[in-house]
Each structure stands twice: as C-alpha cells, then as structure tokens.
Design a protein that fits this description.
The protein is built from one helix and no strands. The protein is an all-alpha fold and 45 residues long.
C-alpha cells in the first residue's frame, strides 16, 4: 500500500483518524478522571 500513491493516502487518512480519536480519548478520559495530562519538571521525578 505504501508504494501506491492512492493507497498511501488512504493509510495516511486512517492514521490521522486514529490519532484524532486517541487525542479525544485522552482529553475526555482526563476530564472524567479529573486529572491534568502533562509533565511537571518541579515534581521531583
């Protein structure tokens, strides 16, 4: 599929859709759990 330009576009579209879904899932999950996703350099880790 990577060799064919049209099929490559299909794979890229699927990848982008999954990425969007993953980001939405993270945001919704964090909101429901009441946590903030991120890195804090000052927390001692």
């Amino acid at each position: 599929m990577l060799a064919d330009e049209q099929q490559h576009a299909v794979l890229l579209s699927i990848y982008n859709s999954l990425d969007r879904l993953h980001r939405l899932h993270e945001e919704d999950m964090a909101q429901v759990l009441g946590v903030q996703l991120g890195f804090n350099a000052h927390d001692g880790d």
